[in-house]
Each structure stands twice: as C-alpha cells, then as structure tokens.
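Bench notes, afternoon.
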Amino acid sequence: MPLERIGRGAESWRGEVSTGHRWPRSVAGADSVQSDGVPDEVVARAKAAFTSRATGPLAALTFDSTLDRDEPLPVRRLRFASASLSVDALVEGRGPWRTVRGRVEPEGLSVQLERDSVVAPLATESGGHFRFDGVPSGLIRLRLSEVDGSDPSYTEWFQV
C-alpha cells in the first residue's frame, strides 16, 4: 500500500461475523496525523502489534493459491500447518467485505478471528468447519484454542 494511502482506510467500518459480533468503528480519521507526520492510525496499529504478539505455537502458511498469479482469483485458498494442527481456509469477496471459511484439524478446536486487536469468537461447527462473514479487508489471523484452556495456536497474519 503506498504511504500516501495509509490512514485513508480509517473511514468507519462495521461488519458482522455469523455470531453477531459487531466490529468497532475506527477512532482515527483520515485527517488524524501526529505532529511528526505519521497518521495516528499507523501509530496505534504499530503499538497494537506489540500487544497482540502470539504466545503459542504458530501454524505457518504452506500454500497460497494467489502466489504467482497475474489476476485475482474469486476464491483464495490458504493452508497453514504446524506439528499439531492444520487449517484450510477460503477467502471470498470483493470490495471492503470478505467471508473467511474453512476447516481445522484436529476437530474440536475453537476458532477465533483477530483483526486490529479485536477478536471475533466463533464456535466451530461440526467436523471442524468455521465461517466468518462480513470481515473487513485487511490483515487478520486465526486463533485456535483447545477446550482445556491451554495456550492457543495462531496462524500467520494474512491479507483478506
């Protein structure tokens, strides 16, 4: 994203996931710039990155259907894997909203979507399937938790 466009995506955005979670409105506006010329939104996101670091195992990106493609695909396929789990995800949608759905193995993991330090919970459907609707475009990651409350695993951050 060109530097001059950073901060202009701060218009109010609101979406819902299938659990009814409401995404917050962005506090920073397009005209919100610190005295050193760095938009407030950029500073806030940089600070949030340090507080949202993963403490558990990381599922690395092992496949992305958009790599080496000259044109966008209607459905992007992603695969993440670690020693103990795998996630197959599909990203669909154009414009500002996306649907992120997929399947996690082993079954029984709780899947949550994280974006800008906001966590949208979702009870995984039967068979390890999950779905998030109305996800604003941007960087996200998935948090995968065991029922016993042990440290969650995370996917790498990825663009939707």
